[in-house]
Structure formats: C-alpha cells, structure tokens
Amino acid sequence: MPATLDLYKMYETLTTEEQQIWQAAQNFVDKEFMPIISAHHRDATFPVELIPKLGKLGFLGSQLPEEYGCAGINNRAYGLIMQELERGDSALRSVASVQGALVMYPIWRYGSQQQKEHWLPQLAAGEKVGCFGLTEPDFGSNPAGMLTNAKPHKDGFLLNGSKMWITNGNIADVAVVWAKLDGKVHGFLVPKDTPGFTATEIKGKFSLRASITSELSFNDCFIPKENMLPEAQGLKAPLSCLSQARYGIAWGAIGSALATYHCALDYSKTRIQFDKPIASFQLIQQQLVEMASDITHAQLLAFRLAELKDQKQVRPAMISLAKRNNVRMALNTARTARNILAANGIVDEYPIMRHMMNLETVITYEGTHEVHTLILGQHLTGVSAFE
Amino acid sequence: MPATLDLYKMYETLTTEEQQIWQAAQNFVDKEFMPIISAHHRDATFPVELIPKLGKLGFLGSQLPEEYGCAGINNRAYGLIMQELERGDSALRSVASVQGALVMYPIWRYGSQQQKEHWLPQLAAGEKVGCFGLTEPDFGSNPAGMLTNAKPHKDGFLLNGSKMWITNGNIADVAVVWAKLDGKVHGFLVPKDTPGFTATEIKGKFSLRASITSELSFNDCFIPKENMLPEAQGLKAPLSCLSQARYGIAWGAIGSALATYHCALDYSKTRIQFDKPIASFQLIQQQLVEMASDITHAQLLAFRLAELKDQKQVRPAMISLAKRNNVRMALNTARTARNILAANGIVDEYPIMRHMMNLETVITYEGTHEVHTLILGQHLTGVSAFE
Amino acid sequence: MPATLDLYKMYETLTTEEQQIWQAAQNFVDKEFMPIISAHHRDATFPVELIPKLGKLGFLGSQLPEEYGCAGINNRAYGLIMQELERGDSALRSVASVQGALVMYPIWRYGSQQQKEHWLPQLAAGEKVGCFGLTEPDFGSNPAGMLTNAKPHKDGFLLNGSKMWITNGNIADVAVVWAKLDGKVHGFLVPKDTPGFTATEIKGKFSLRASITSELSFNDCFIPKENMLPEAQGLKAPLSCLSQARYGIAWGAIGSALATYHCALDYSKTRIQFDKPIASFQLIQQQLVEMASDITHAQLLAFRLAELKDQKQVRPAMISLAKRNNVRMALNTARTARNILAANGIVDEYPIMRHMMNLETVITYEGTHEVHTLILGQHLTGVSAFE
Amino acid sequence: MPATLDLYKMYETLTTEEQQIWQAAQNFVDKEFMPIISAHHRDATFPVELIPKLGKLGFLGSQLPEEYGCAGINNRAYGLIMQELERGDSALRSVASVQGALVMYPIWRYGSQQQKEHWLPQLAAGEKVGCFGLTEPDFGSNPAGMLTNAKPHKDGFLLNGSKMWITNGNIADVAVVWAKLDGKVHGFLVPKDTPGFTATEIKGKFSLRASITSELSFNDCFIPKENMLPEAQGLKAPLSCLSQARYGIAWGAIGSALATYHCALDYSKTRIQFDKPIASFQLIQQQLVEMASDITHAQLLAFRLAELKDQKQVRPAMISLAKRNNVRMALNTARTARNILAANGIVDEYPIMRHMMNLETVITYEGTHEVHTLILGQHLTGVSAFE
C-alpha cells in the first residue's frame, strides 16, 4: 500500500470494511491508472476504458442504494475512494464525481421511478456515461442568471441555450441539463443523439488535461415530457448536486496533496546537495512541515464531515469550508512540492506539475474560492456580500 | 453561556459531565475574571486571590488522580478548562498550566510518595503555588545546555545557577528546579524561603502583563536529599512536563481565538460605515471567514488530540503540531480582529490588543514556532536540522 | 550614526544638505529621545518638552516656506526627518506629522494671510501645538458622513459635534476642525480656551502609548468668522491634508522598520543557541532576508515618491500605494523581529514590542489598509467598490 | 503600444533612445511572437527562425561592444528588451539570456582575441546559437561539486562528464562547458559536431515548453587547447555569467507579470457576474491591487539596479535580491491572474496558464529561491548557512 501521511492516526479508526474499500481504490489507482496517466496527460486524453472498471469496483455513485446497482456505502468509505482517485489525478476523481454526484444523484433524488430504473444501473456499471450541464458561458458564479430555457412543445419541451466547461460532455450518453421553464429551473435528461444537441470539446487546456471538457449547445432540441426530472424545482436542486460533488472534492484534494507531499518527502530524503540530503536543511524541513500540518487539518475536516453527513447533520456552509480549505491546501502543497523538486519538479517523470496544474481547475469549479468565501461569510454574519 | 463558534459541531459531542465542567469554567471566567482583567493588565499584576478559587473548582492539575485531591478528569474536559481560562487571558491559563502541568505533574510522575502526599493536595487546592525552573538566560531553545548544577553536599546538594522567564517565580511557595548533577539532569523541589534562593520580578513586559514573570537565582542553595525528585533522570523528565503544558496550550489558544473572533464578529455586525454594517463588506467577510476556518481546524486538532491522549496514543510530534498551529492561528486571529476593529482595536475597552500582545509570549514559550517546526521536521524526515 | 540598511545605495544619492538634515534628525533621536522613550511608553505620556526642540531644528512643517519661519526644505529631506523620528517612535513622528501636515499645511494652503502670519511662526517654532479634527466616532473610513456642523451666528458660527482619535487634542493650543456648513465641509480654527470646546484624553491605549489621543467635543461653541479657513471648501481640503500626512507616514514606516530590523539583526549575531549565533540558522536568515528585502522596496518607493512630489507629479493613488505598503511592511518587520528575539522580544529593554504595538495604529489611521486597497482598486479599474 | 502599468512613472524617465529600443522590442513581440507562441507552447517547440531576427534587432548580447557586432547599449535599455521578450514568453527571454549573458558574455570577458572575433559577431547576428553547460544532474545548487573534468591530452584536453537542464543544448552550434582541470574550474568552447559530445532533449516538460532543454554528455571528447577560455579560472568565472543572466531575469519577470496583470485587469473589466463587471467586487480589486503594488516594487528595483550596474556599483547580493523578489512576484501575479480568470484561466486562449507554468522554472534556475535567500542571508549576517 502507498504511504499515507497519518499524523493524527485517523486512518486507524477505519472499520475493516472501510479499510477494504480503501485498499481496493489504492490498488486500482496504483496498478491500472498510474502506469498510463502521464501519457494521457501529455496527449490530453482520458482513458475511457477505465470507466467500466470503476463501475465494477462500485466506485460510481457508491453511496446510492444497492437496489439500483450501487454500492450503498457510507460517506467515509466514499470519501476514501475519492481521495485515492484524486491521488491518481484530479481528472479521474472528476469523472467519478460527475457520474456519481452530478448525474446519478439527481436522477436518484429527483427522478421518476422509470428514470431511476432505466439509468442508474447502467451508470453505476459504467456502461453509460453522464454529464451535468449547469454552468453557462456568461454565468459561472451566478447560475441563477442562466439563459438556457425550455418551452412547452407538443408532449414535451424545446430546449435552447448553451452550457460551458462540461466534464465528459463529448463522451456522455446522457446529459442532465438545467434550464428555465416559465422562469423556474428544471432538470432534463438529454440523450446524446438527440437532434439539436451538440457537444464540442474544449482544446488547449493546461489543467485537467486528462479529462474531456466540452461546450454543449441546444438548438430547438426536443425533450419528451418523461425526460424531465419530476421532483426538481428551482435552483436548489442543482445546488444540492453541487453539495454532493463538493463533499467528494474535499476528500479528493487530500489525495492530490498526499501524492505531491510524499513525492517531495521521498525526493528530499534522497536528493543530495552539499553532501547531505536536502531533507536535512531547515528551509526544506519547514516546507515539509507546513505541508504535513495542512494535510492533517484537511484530513480531520474530511473525517468529521463524513460523520456529520452520515448523521444527516451536514450543512452547505460546512461543505464550503472543507472544499475551500482543502483545495487551497492541495494547491499550496503541490506548489511547495514543485519548489522542493527544483528542476525535476517541471517534468512529468514526477506527478507534481500535473497535480499543480489540475488544482487550478479544482479550486475554480464547483464554486470558486471567492464564492465559498462569500457563502461562509453570509453564514457567519447573516449578511450577503455577493452583490 | 458565551458564544462559541462551532462550525463542525464538535462541542455537541461532549458528554454531560464534560458540558458541566465546561460551563463551570465559562462561568468562572465570565463572572470572576472578565470584570477585573483589564485593570490587572494595565497595572501588570495578577489576581492572586483567584488561585484558591481555581483550586476549589478543580482546575489545578485536573487530570491527576483524586487520591491527591485532584479532579481526575479526562483530557477533553481538561482541554475545555484551558480553553476557557485562555478565553479570559493567556496569563490565567498560564498560571493553571504551570501549577498543573509543570509543578504537580512532575511531582506526581517523578516524586516520592512523601513528596506527593505533602505537595499535591495543597497545590491542587491552590493553597500553595508552584513554579517551574528549566529555561536559563542563555539556554532557551536548547535546555540541554543548562549551566545550573547541583553538587553533593552533606545530606543533600548545593544548587548554583539561574533560571529565566519563570512564571509565578515571585509568588511561588515551591520551585521545581532542573539542574545537572554529575552531568545528568535532575529535578529538585526548592521551597521559597530556602537560603541562597532569590526571585526577581521581570519588569517592562508588554505581553502576559497580567502574569508574574521572574528570574530565579541559586547561590550555594542547600537542598536536602529528600527534595530531589527520585524518578526523574535526564532531560526527558522536564521535556515530558513540557508535553503536558503544550497540550494545554493547544486548547488554550482556541479560547483566545474565540475571544477575539467573537469580538470582531460582533463589532462588524454593529459598526456602520457607508450606511451599512461593515460585516456586509467582502473585505471584512473574507477576514472573518479565514478566522472561523482556522479556528475550526484548531478545534478538530484539539478534540482529536484529547482522544489520542486518553487512549495513550499521543506522541510529542502530535502535540508539537497542535501547539505550533493553534498558537499561530490564535495570533493571526487576534491580529485580524485588531484590524477589523480599526481604531477601537487598540484600546482596552476591547480584549483584542491584550490577547494579541499575550500571544507573542505564547508562540515563544514551551518551544518557539521554529523549535516545533524542527521537531516536526525531524519526525517527518528522520533527520535532525537543529544544529 | 546609527546603522541604516541601504542595500540599493539610496542614501548615497543624498545631497550634502540632505545628509546634514538627516544627521541632525538622527542625532536628535539618538540623544534626546531614545533615552526617555521607554519610560514614556510605560507611563503613557508624551515628552512635551521636546516640541520646541523639534521646532528649533526645523522639523515642524519643514516643507513650508521660510517666510513663515519654516525650513523650506524639499520632500526628500522632509521624508528623512520623518523616517528618523519614527525610528524613535511612531508617537514622535505623529506629533510632527500632525503639527506639520495636518495643522500648518491647511493654514498655509487654505488660510487667510492673517491666519498664516499669526499661527505659522508659532507652530513652526513649537511654541504652540495644534491638532486636527476630522474623524468622528461613527465616521472613520467615511469622513463624508460627518455630523459636526457649523451654523451662522452673529459674526461667526456655532459649532456642534464631536471628533474622535485626535492626536494632541489635550495639549493643543489650536484645533483645525472640519464641519459642515450648509452641507459643505469647511475648516475652522478653534483655540483651546474657546467656551463649549472640551477635550478628553482617551485612556487604556496599548498602541502609540507615548502619544496623547483625545476626543473633542463642541457644544454651541462660538467661532468668529475670521477663524474659518477661507480657501477650504468641500471634503477635498481635509483630504489634501491627509495626503501630506500619508506621505510622511510612508517615510516614517521605514524608520520604524529600520529600528526593529537592526535590533533583530544585532540580536541574532550575538545570541548563541546550540553553540552558534542564531544568525547562522537558515530559519533565522530567511526572516532577516524578507525584512531587508521589504525595507528595500519601501525605500525605493519613498525616494521615488519624493522625486515625484518635488516635481509636482504625485497623485493620491501613488501615496496610497506607499502608505499602504510601507506600514504593512513595517508591521510585518516588527512582528518578525519580535519573533527572532523570542522571550526578549516582549520586554521594553528592546524597542521591538513598542514598535509592533504602535504600528497597529499607524496601519489604521490616515486611511486603513482596506481603504487604501479600495482607493487603489478604483484607480486601477475605474470602478468604485467602497459601497 | 501595449499597456504598461507605470504607477510610479518610471518609464517616463527613459531617454529617447531607450524609448525606441523598448518600442522595437514591443513591436517584435507583438507582431512576430504573440501570434505563434500558443502553438509552440502546445507542441513544445521553439521558433528557431526568430533567432536571426533577434540578432538583427540587436537583442543578442546587446550590452557588449559594437566592435564585435553587438549593440553596445546600456543596462536599462537591455533590461527593457528582457522585459518585453518575457512579456512574450519566458522561453523567448531565456534564449536571449543564454545567448547574451551565458555564451557571448563569457567569451567576451574570458575569451582570447581569436575566440571573440570568431564567435561574437556570428552569435550577435543569431547566425550561430550557443548554450551554457554548468549544472550537472547531481549538482544544481552547488556547482562547486561538479564532476565534469578535463584532462590534458596531446595539444588539448579530454572532456568527460554530463550537464543537465541546458537551454538550447540541442540546437546550439557551440557549448560553453565548465569543467575541472586539476581541481580548478575552467571554461571550454565545444562545437556541436565534436566527437564524443552528444545532446539529448528532455521531454515531458510542463514549463518553458516553448524552449529546448537538453542533457549534454561528454565522453572522451577532445578539445583543442585554443578552445579553452584563457582568462576564466575558478568558479567565479561561471558565477559572473550567472550574475549577468540574473540581472536580465529580474527585468524579464516584470514583463511576464505585466502580461498576466493586464490580461486579468482587462478580463475583470469586461467579465460580468451578478450584473456588474467583476472589477467592481472588493475581492477582485484587492487581488489587482496586490499585483499592481508588487509590480511597482519590481520596477523600482530593476530601474535602480540598471543605474547601479551602469555605474559599476552593482554587487551580487543586489542582483540576488532582485532576481529572488521579482520572479516570486511574477509567479504570484500569474497565480492571482489565473484565479481572476476562473475557468478561462486554464485555456491557452489566454497567456496566463503558460506564464504560470513557465515561472516555475524561472524561480528555480539561475539560483533557486532558497539559494538566493541564503546568498542574501550571508550578505546581511556575515555568516554562511548553506551547509
């Protein structure tokens, strides 16, 4: 098993079952993913063949009930999976997050029985891939301003508008698309071959390169009535999905930080300068200590959040705190690790530069750092400072 | 009860008994201490009359066994007491830390049965006061270099040397003094009226003003054999006391931060500028959010540390991490609070400047920030970078 | 002469006359001020007997013309005086700033010929002391909201309202008071014994202790017509005074930083731990390097600003940049120096804690850090974000 | 001309000639380089066809005398060229730095008359390309430890060893290689087709992608006597070249920061969220203000350094200060700009991610941040803390 910094012995509190799930995730990442990620990162491709394997391992929508083919595990075990996937690459965790938290979760929570039965087992198995269309080109931090709209048409709706920065847009079999109907936000399931629906891959990304990101556009795209999510009304439906995803990111960020921290630690113990390992210099130790201390905070936040989530005591502000803190922590950790590796920090022989680049996306998506600052600010003061 | 930021609902996990102890500490601080601290801070005096009250409440050496008149409580309850005392003032917590962790603890752990029976009940009751003499003028971060020494003389020893920055030195009935005997560190109990022992108060402090700090000097000071701590041999004995004290500081720092955070939060909600409360400005919210996020980390560290300590799984590096992080956090929080209060932040009508000044000591004593960096650095890398 | 960090050889560019003025200021501070400041800081008093000496040396209103008894020197020489006075203590520089930039400057710029002839020579000589009343209890960052007002009455005005945080309020012979007359801000000269005018000293400050700070109140206080500043109309008049004062603060902050930097450097070279000077540890060198690098930036800003001011090219945003940066720099430098001195950093045997405490005021007055952020933000973006 | 932040009106102090050179560099970058950089960055290639154009413009070895075909300009004009080239891309400035400061400079300063006459005009014209071989795989921060060595052989030397992270190694016509001869460092000119000399391009870089970086290896590579630099003896010869290069980097970093700052400023003024430009939010203004303030410091450092260098008053510690500060500033600026652009910050439609990635190399090469900290620390304290 890979080294996992555990200064406060949190992982020793895992149950046997959680330990096994954790180990399965570690094995998968180390054996199936690490050998190929560097090439995919260079080429800006995602190893789509891994999606069914993720499904087989129960890593897609893991918290949803077994009746729909899901693993039905608790939030701690789910968090550990996210941690390990992002120890591999943020792109890998993103794929699992999108599938589980942004596609399967809304179908399960807001969908009809028929929608659930049709989609959830296939999505859980990784036989089908989904994507989540909320963000628009001009509405990133303010989804309430969305322009995409649905108009009643025959036995369904005509969908018009566009969505931006959509993970897996080009490989998705189904898109969960949010649009305004009579001024109120609703969710629609849009299969990939629907006329009027096109997805265009975004090129030239230097972050999450091993992830497919797309722009979706809908041009008088007809959606039959039964493809609307019946229970989702208003913006709080897609926001509840974001909460699920952010929870996973809070765990995932720890994985990324563990990857870069352990790489820097190992490097510092073997890299000799002035006849001794650089780990013996005060300026290097200080950097390692800040990393390890910050990772420990992030772990405590994530473990406690899992507990609160399992007890249904979690609130959006708690998740904002953990997402905001842990991703910034992971980004700082990657930057520090990059610095410790000096010249070796810029080549893809080491995972560091890749993680550092990835985290620039992770700190932005699912609520930028500033958005989470203002969510928390409102929670603490009772006053909104968004506008 | 005073407001206590609890974003991750940690205080809701307290047992009824812990809740009661916590409340007793809050009441004591709010009713007995808050009304007088400002005057003591101005005058640079400590309210010695409170020491027996601390004793009566069981706040001195609270974790030690009841057979010696102590409260025998667990580490979480003890931590909560430290938190509340330092919410009052770092000087108040320091007095309790010195008495409990640095005087009673070594007597209990390293003392003879007779020493325990003689001193512990009186110290627990606050009828007697103790101090701890380890640091020397030229040996702050490197206690191993101490010059104070004991030489065999008749049925005891002659003690020579001096100790610096000793809390309560001038009011102590007994000093636990560490000195080298044949090159090995030993502990000695030195009653206040021992010939050759003098204590001089250090004046002109602008930190921990409400605390008495002294220089001790020993000039052919005769110590009878039975005043040596029989079980303490080598530097690890006083270092084990520091671990106890640092644990309490890690909790205490949270109390200080809660005091300055809540003051700044309340101020920001009522202070109007440009026709609205300053809490509604993004630049103010950002500062409050950083404070609240950092306090949450510190709370998680402290609660977990208590658990590990109760399970006897705690290691010095864990305590270093929490002391280092939590005190820096409290200092940053005080500085930010000072900034939010603007001009009002500099007057003692508010507790902020006092806490900010105090924490400059707290970040230095019981191991400076740098010392804890290097303790952790050594723990992580396996290499010492002290020298 | 005291050591002055000069990594970029800026002080070597001084003219002979500037050198002489600089030296006179250094001598004054070292010989007349340093020996007494510690006691004044402890007692919270200002050495008023030094004011005439400042006058004799030409340090009050130094840039104003010689015809009014002023020194008529350039902005660089004036800056060097401010630097040296604040190397002594921010309180000393504050007194000179208030007298020169906030009292003499508005009289010179906005006053009648008679006002100039009456007040400027006495103020320049330090025979009379002035104060500046702009800030009000509820209007710190937003002076436009002031409530103090003047109503026409006989051959003058009745002044009502109160002013807060007024340096030298209790020792001033004359107050320059800003009040609204028919909704427009005007300036009034209020002699100390004017009926209805009272000044109350603010107690319990733990910053700028060696400075007198007062609340002024005006209760139907009659001001004869000839005491109004005829040329000052609107808020831009008092704001122009603030620009003068902020310019001086930008230089003064360097002086404070030089005091704490040199103290920490000297300490680190003589303090031995682990058998070598702490200056030889990487963690200490890093702190010294940050201080020295930041001081160098501040010096370059100040020297360039002097040049631009002499060429009448200076703009408020430039001054905001230097005030904001240099005071934060000085505060950070003091905090770092405090840390390097460890326990010795908290006693007034060293100047460090005093400077650190002082700078909490300096970063707040004449525009808080946030206010200058928003002044600059507006300058850069063209959009105001104040409200 | 492109926008150039100039809060302290430094660029207004340029002479007409300096203005013209500056403009020529701006034109070249904007017209010849900006249209192609994005593609080269994607493909990890350098536009070698631009090298002769750089030569024609006088941008290669610009400060060296005209008798060798160089421009013979002053240090300020040279700095402005570096600024503009790095505003394009750090790779472009690196090519000019290597050619001018690391190849032409040592030939000019340490070479024979014949070496100068042969190489300088061709290198100045960009007809030939050079590289600089100092760093070795195991000796980055400590070049004194180099293993590459030369042994006398017939009328010359046999060179053995390897060099790492060599910019332009694969396209260079000549390498300036540093090796030990009898334990003392000497410089050798190694033409590209010398038997035993091979260059291997380093792949998988995610920083300075538009730059060719190589490993050089020398295997009994015969160097005729006349290819040794006669005047270079000891490590101070290559270190003097590094000083030249670092000076250019201090300027170049400003160019990179100007690129990312102006991009973020423009974006913030046009990007609408919550119905107003994001430039009107306090949290965004604060970020822009820090960037602009830091760029201003860097400009003042660079302009003053140019003056000191032209007056031959420059010292290595001054250059270390500017290199260390300005590159960290540029990196922070790029990171902040990335954040302001949110999702758009990760695509190469904008230059920001590219600059951010590049600067990870720039902060490492020619002395890491830590190395410059310790150079400055030694300068300030008189004690070395390198080992």
Task: Label this structure with key terms.
homotetramer, 387 residues, alpha+beta, Butyryl-Coa Dehydrogenase, subunit A, domain 1, Butyryl-CoA Dehydrogenase, subunit A, domain 2, Butyryl-CoA Dehydrogenase, subunit A, domain 3, four-stranded antiparallel sheet, three-stranded mixed sheet, 10 helices, 50% helix, globular
Please explain how this structure is put together.
- 4 copies of one chain form a homotetramer.
- The first copy, chain A, starts with 15 loop residues before the first helix and ends in a 6-residue tail after the last helix.
- The first copy, chain A, folds into 3 domains: 114 residues, Orthogonal Bundle (Butyryl-Coa Dehydrogenase, subunit A, domain 1); 98 residues, Butyryl-CoA Dehydrogenase, subunit A, domain 2 (Beta Barrel), CATH 2.40.110; 146 residues, Butyryl-CoA Dehydrogenase, subunit A, domain 3, CATH 1.20.140.
- Chain A has 10 helices and 9 strands.
- In chain A, the strands form 3 sheets. In chain A, strands 2-3-7-6 form a 4-stranded antiparallel beta sheet, with helices on one face. A 3-stranded mixed beta sheet of chain A has the order 1-4-5. Chain A has a two-stranded antiparallel sheet with strand order 8-9.
- The first copy, chain A, has 387 residues and is of the alpha+beta class.
- Chains in contact: A-B, A-C, A-D, B-C, B-D, C-D.
- At the A-D interface, β8, α9 and α10 of A face β8, α9 and α10 of D.
Helices and strands, with pairings:
Four copies of one chain form a homotetramer.
Chain A: H1 16-43, H2 50-56, H3 75-88, H4 90-110, H5 113-124, E1 130-133, E2 149-153, E3 156-167, E4 174-181, E5 184-191, E6 197-201, E7 213-224, H6 236-270, E8 272-273, E9 276-277, H7 282-310, H8 316-340, H9 352-362, H10 369-381
Parallel strand pairs in A: 1-4
Antiparallel strand pairs in A: 2-3, 3-7, 4-5, 6-7, 8-9
